[in-house]
Amino acid sequence: MVDWKRLEEKWQKRWVDAGAFEADPDPDRPKYYLTVAYPYPNSPQHIGHGRTYTMTDVHARYRRMQGFNVLFPMAWHYTGTPVIAMVERLKEKDPDLLDTFLNIYNIPEGDLHELETPVGMARYFAQEIKDGMQRMGFSIDWRREFTTVDPYYSRFIEWQFAKLRQRGYITQGSHPVGWCPHCGNPVGQHDTVGDKEPEIEEFTVIKFRRGDMVYPAATLRPETVFGVTNMWLNPKTLYVEVRVDGESWVVSAEAANKLQFMGRKVEVVSEFLGARLIGGTLTNPMTGSEMPILPANFVDPKNATGVVMSVPAHAPFDYVALEQLKKAPKKAFEAYNLKQGDVSKLRPVSIIELPGWGESPAVDIVERMGITEQDDPRLEKATKEVYSQEFHNGRLRGNTGRYAGMPVERAKDAVKEDMIADGEATTMYELIEPVQCRCGSDVIVKIFENQWFIDYGDPAWKELAHENLEMMEIIPRELRQEYVHVIDWLKNKACARNVGLGTRLPWAPEWIIEALSDSTIYMAYYTVVRWLSRLRPDPEALTEQFWDYVFLGSGSPEAVAEATGIPVEDLEGIRREFAYFYPLDARHSGRDLIPNHLTFMIFNHDAVWPREYWPRGIVVNGSVLMEGQKMSKSLRNIIPLAQAIDRFGTDPLRLSLMITAEPLKDADFSPELAKSMADNLDKFHASAMEIISAPSNPCAELTEIDMWMLSRLQGYIRDANEAMTEMKVRKTIHSALYDLNQDLDWYRRRVATQLERGERKLAIRHVLRTVMDAQVRLLTPFTPHLCEEIWEAMGNEGFVAFAPWPEPDGSMVRPEAEELESVVRTSIEDVQKIVQVTGIRPSRIHFYTASTWKWKVYLNALRMAEAGTLDVGTLIRDSFRDEEVKTRTKEVPSFARGVVEDVMRTPAETARRRLGLKLVNESKLLEDAASFFGAEFGCEVTVENESDPWIHDPENRAPRAKPYRPAIYVE
Ligand SMILES: [Zn+2]
């Protein structure tokens, strides 16, 4: 059994002592620079965090073995609300948090006081996370560690913002932001429960009226105003009459509050339950028609204005709600001063023509899907489908006045603009989906006035970002479109806060730059920080001039030396180091950061640097599930990383995090999985030690079966290589471990008797050793500790971490050997099946190989399949041109039919190989393997051709023989 703890400590110490992963510029070697998002140190790590970082380490180790000078650094993100919010919760003695810290992560109670300041907490957890990363064996260059509140880092961020401002990408103004009224701060994805990005949309607010009173209905589809049949209010919630900018409005109480945050003057006149308004009528500002106000519990007073217009022809929710209401009992109507007849006469009014759909698309889809209830979850899907179809393919009908015939895509804006111009509509911002701040309050939209923004909406800047994206390698590649979408969609982003740790805006020092804005180009800072730690300049010396020289190469080193007091040769060294490691080759992160951090990184690099320093690649992965479920405190299924390492060992843990899923999918962890990985690695280790201990001879003569094994090995190396180019780590591990081991088992079976008899020992061991040597190297990125141990035992010099990554050796590829061995393999499986089914203890096994005419038909079929002309009739006709085949008039048709079926199922590559091999002497092949069959089944084996006159075939099995599938008779 492998002693994981001993192995980890041994190799981690050796790597540190040798400075193995400390990367300095080396002009003689190509570099590979990769980074992963630095963590917010606001809690200990659990195994969910392990996946993204392990993936990055696997990538770093893979590139190192390919011969690159790899830089993989790490730092700590102290900035922003994640740390502050956690400190606040701790100081308030939040029972949930205390439970998590004390009982899940086992933080000693005596340590808690250390965590009550932001820096104290950040330092404590940074150390905890760093310990975990070191115990995971991450190949990080720790000399470049820093925090985002270091004075040098602040000078760097000031420079970044100076550049952004000089390029015109910083604006001051009033823009909508996600806002927490409790914290008094804008909130981004990293400030919210569940890390949800607050996505804001501008809604059109249409003014339905009753006399002078305005009932403002918010909608994203203003063009459907022509199809409104009724209005919805929630009878059970509180509405208010308010004075808004000189008008009287009726809105939900929540909406009144929100309108104030959007900069409107709001004065509450009176409040009442929605029930009071049901049964009244309103006037549609576009059509002038009167429509009833109907009750609807689905109206959420927190959403927009709490007043909803109903368009049953084009909104599935409205149609289902209306139909449901029509079926309500009579007394439900009486309670609201409504007449049942007034409701039942309401019919959908279709105003959009959609080719291929019925009169009213919403009615169409609801009926097609059989939806009858408002709470049917499929309504969301139906709504999306109708909206998207109508938006892209719909045209307004004749009942929409001057918009008739206009595509929906255009009518949407036209109707909105015209109504606003006529005073019949206005706009408001609202979140597309509800989001909660980390403090527990609902996030709302606030017009943030006179604030500082990064203008990601700038069209020229977007062009650069698109151009950069074009030239980047995006892994997994399916996600490229998501980035395109985010680049298009991004608008102004508030970049400063008035609380938290971080760097102050250089020109407005009352503001602190927030966490998603001070983390976009810091990959460049890693190349400099090592020098700063050594030179210890006064932070004041790190002026714009200094960074301009270091990062942009502008100005002379002499002048900068003069101004900063940093010697010229050091300045030149820093510049060289940046220019050596930049651009960034790969940025790793979780998939959830595409809508912000990862795209911000692209934008900011493009703003600051010329194209040669733009980032080259992004790799993202999904998260980790625990036994199929999301990890959460309430499910009590969080495993702290430190505990997981103690329990399972680092290498089994790393392998478990990598093996269950390709990057795009969520990985599914379980303790059983980790244990089975440990068993696998134990076996691998034991077999390696056995192979190493026995002598072998690389010059020994190899036989067919040896060539077969070495050829298969090349195939798996090729598969593993292909998979690694897209970080499909699951596939790599499968090739390197499972598939290869299966073939190894087969090989060992095939040579077992030879080994027992002491024949060909040195050759066989040479083959086993060659396979193991490749296997160890293929597994090194995943299980580095175990692989170092085996590599050392093999007598190699130096770390396997720097051994060359295996490449397939074309001279060892033997497609024919593989094809022929497959005959032996299927034959033995066939015999096993017969033995199992009949329960016979075999005394003799007969193999009958196919006669020549069958081969002729078979090869004909392969040829026709390749040409794409295979069909039974032609095959029979063509085959009959052969004199020998012609003599088999009776047998050929049915045989040909079977062959066509077989060939259709044969992979193209196999077919091509078999075509190349032509007629195979299967009898010889099986005779050579006879001793193997004999040993496997403990009996005699005979091989005959079905056309042999002396054939012994009492059960008449021989006619079943086919090429590559001998017939079998077991006595
Ligand atoms: Zn809050």
Write the layout of secondary structure elements.
Blueprint: H1 4-18, E1 31-36, H2 47-65, E2 69-71, H3 81-91, H4 95-104, H5 118-135, H6 151-166, E3 170-180, E4 185-186, E5 200-210, E6 213-219, E7 230-233, E8 238-244, E9 247-252, H7 253-261, E10 266-273, E11 281-283, E12 290-295, E13 308-310, H8 316-326, H9 330-334, H10 340-344, E14 352-353, H11 361-369, H12 378-393, E15 395-396, H13 408-421, E16 425-431, E17 444-455, H14 459-470, E18 473-475, H15 480-489, E19 492-494, E20 496-497, E21 504-505, E22 508-513, H16 526-535, H17 544-552, H18 557-564, H19 568-581, E23 586-590, H20 594-608, E24 617-621, E25 624-626, E26 629-630, H21 641-648, H22 650-659, E27 667-669, H23 671-693, H24 704-725, H25 729-756, H26 761-779, H27 784-793, H28 815-838, E28 844-849, H29 852-867, H30 872-879, H31 883-886, H32 892-905, H33 908-917, H34 922-928, H35 930-937, E29 940-945, E30 967-970
Parallel strand pairs: 1-2, 1-23, 6-9, 7-12, 18-24, 23-24, 25-27, 28-29
Antiparallel strand pairs: 3-4, 3-17, 5-6, 5-16, 7-13, 8-9, 8-10, 11-12, 14-15, 17-19, 20-22, 21-22, 25-26, 28-30
The structure holds zinc ion (ZN).
The site of zinc ion has 6 residues, from loops.
What can you tell me about this protein's structure?
Helix content is about 45%, strand content about 15%. The protein contains 35 helices and 30 strands. Helix 24 packs parallel to helix 26 and helix 29 packs across helix 32 (about 890-905). The protein binds zinc ion. Zinc ion binds near residues 180, 183, 439 and 441.
